[in-house]
Amino acid sequence: MEQKAVKLVEALTAMQEEGTLCDVTLQAEQKTLTAHKVVLAAGSPYFMAMFNGNFKETESKVVTFQEVRFSGLKAVVNDIYFKTVEIPVENIPNVLPAAHLFQMENLLDSICTLMTDNIHTDNFFQFLEIAQKYQLKREVEVIGRWMADNATINTCFQYLELAQKYHMEHAIGGIHEFILNNFKKVSADEEFYNTSQEDFCGYLSSDLLRTEFQEIDVYMAAKKWLEINKVKDTNTITDIMKNVRFALIKSERLSEIIHDDVLCANEEGQNMVEEAIEYQSNVYMQPLYSGILNKPRGMTGLVMFPSCSSRYEQHDIQFIRFPGYCWWKRGRRSKIFPVTDLVPEYSSINIVNVSNSLFVFGVGVNSNNYQNFTKRYDATTDTWLDMSPIPRHPILDVATAHCGQNIFLIGGCAVDIGEYEDKEDTNVNDTYMYAIPSNTWTKCENLPGKYYNSGACHLNGYIYCNGGNVTPCVKTNKHYAYDIEEKKWLVKNSMQYERSFHVFEALNVKLYAMGGASQSFENSVETYDPLADQWTEVTCSTNLGWRNRDFQWELYYRCSASFVCDSQLYLVGGHEGGLIVEFRINEDCEGIFEDIEYRSSGDHSSDDTRTVACAFMTLPKLLSTSE
Q1: Cα 440 from Cα 134, distance rounded (Å)
Q2: How many domains does the chain have?
Q3: Concatenated DSSP letters of 145-176
Q4: Using CA atoms, how far apart are residues 19 and 17, in angstroms rounded to an integer?
């Protein structure tokens, strides 16, 4: 049957080429070719309607087409007769309209593929107009991606204008990203200052504006835009200048620009600079500022501090960037960056993120000399500051909680040297409060029990602390609340299960304890209602991606780090090491764990890879290495 069909097609093709029994002549651009109506109707819905309806062309021997080129008409007829159709790239504008008119879907698909595979600077605009005219959405998107990927300093604004004209959202976003990534070079182009006020403010306000720690470039661009556009209106000047993050400009430059005419004539601009100068002069208070003034520009993600098999070995700290602002969507992979020279070699560490300032409390080791250290990482300037260390013997595995201007360190286990050497019980119940504004420590009332590897968090004026190790093999379920105003510990109802190394976080108006090193209850979750002083076990389910279907879930809960972002709770690391998991409560008050990120870390069953601490923050130093 197939052989007969081939012979039939070959016979019809030969007859068409020889003009044998042809019953219609097709004409375009005063050129003609002959064909068989029945064959044309069988190959094209357009011809079927034309020759099988009540049209003048139905009985006509000659049909003339004004809207197509002859080369396009010939390509369509050749395709209908199963001839080989070779279309040069330069002939696409002639053939595509004909394929679209005669509803030749396969030919149209081939032409569209040829078009999108051969986009370049000389033809993309013509291809874009064709794709727009014939509503080829996929091809418009492909051309838009090409425009975004191939934008240059000289072409980015031309491409942006086209993208906005044709409402090409993907291209607009990509070109905006190019401008942000190349801000210093782009801002040297006069065309940049023809940008609308809305778009210009959009660039200056972006967290991803690449300044390489030179915020002064942003100010100079804002000043130039105002000068070129001859802006005198105070409100407009304020709208432009409020996007400059003056606190990120070096102090000596601030002292200079405060006398610029554009700021001298604008009271609010003067106030912004003066506030920035005050911010820089008060180092200890800087983490307590909030708002656009000192917000760094950079990539947002997780700083992760992993453990090692050797307790006193230097650790490889990593920053993992989640894609865009949709980093929680399953299936998207993060790029991992190494972060070097963050903290000294440490044996125990706790970190607290306060308004993108990273406080690191730990015990450092140098030639077997153990010392407490406190450091603060200023992400806006990529610098580390030595802060006041906790005034006591080096203590490991403490619990930390942050409340307003204070950070609390609770319990722990003393390093077995000095006064604790050879002691059977090295646990401590100290509670220390670090005051951020004054960089000082205050000894608070002792915790009622001596534990290490406990969990702690803050909620509504109380520091809650629970669980932990009594000995390496004995855990506790004790639960306490420190009344910050009254400065005393209160004994609360104990957790249902004994836990240590567990996750303990405040979420909305409740507390959640989950996982831990207790052998029987790694995957249990319980919630605490402070008003009722009551613990309730949470029924949980897991929603794992296909790549983690064989994942040993109970191991994940052990020794996990955690953070809360936008009222969502996330677990990081654990003994499995490689997952970032979102925890949420559904409408039925059931807990759901869903993996949202995976990072390969070698042997996930080993302690070598578990993350012991993490912080969700923005790092400008990595913006220049982004892709």
Answers
A1: 70
A2: 3
A3: HHHHHT--TTTHHHHHHHHHHTT-HHHHHHHH
A4: 6
Average pLDDT over residues 50-70: 87
Q: Give the residue carrying structure tokens 């070129």.
A: 228
**CATH number, domain with residue 455:** 2.120.10.80
274 found inside a domain: yes
Residue type, 60: S
Amino acid letter for position 171: A
The 3-state DSSP class for residue 138 equals helix
Indicate the burial class of 51 (C-beta count within 10 angstroms; 0-12, 13-18, 19 or more): buried
Q: pLDDT value at position 460?
A: 95
Of 217, 624, 618, the closest CA to residue 379 belongs to 618
For the segment 324-335, the average pLDDT, to the nearest whole number, is 35
Tell which residue, 78, 114, 72, 570, has the closest CA to residue 302.
570
DSSP class of residue 181 equals: H
**CB 363, CB 415: distance < 8 Å:** yes
Contacts of 460 (CB under 8 A, 6+ apart): 509, 530
Regarding beta strands 540-543 and 591-598, do their DSSP bridges make them parallel or antiparallel, or are they unpaired?
A: parallel
pTM here is 0.76
Residue 413 and residue 370 share a domain: yes
DSSP assignment of 57-97, as one string?
HHH-SEEE-SSS-HHHHHHHHHHHTT------GGGHHHHHH
**How many Å apart are CA 233 and CA 226, to the nearest integer?**
10
Q: What is the pLDDT of residue 331?
A: 35
Does a structural domain hold residue 562? Answer: no
Cα(104)–Cα(520) distance, integer angstroms: 66
Q: How far is CA 573 from CA 44, 144, 185, 614, in A?
A: 60, 39, 40, 9
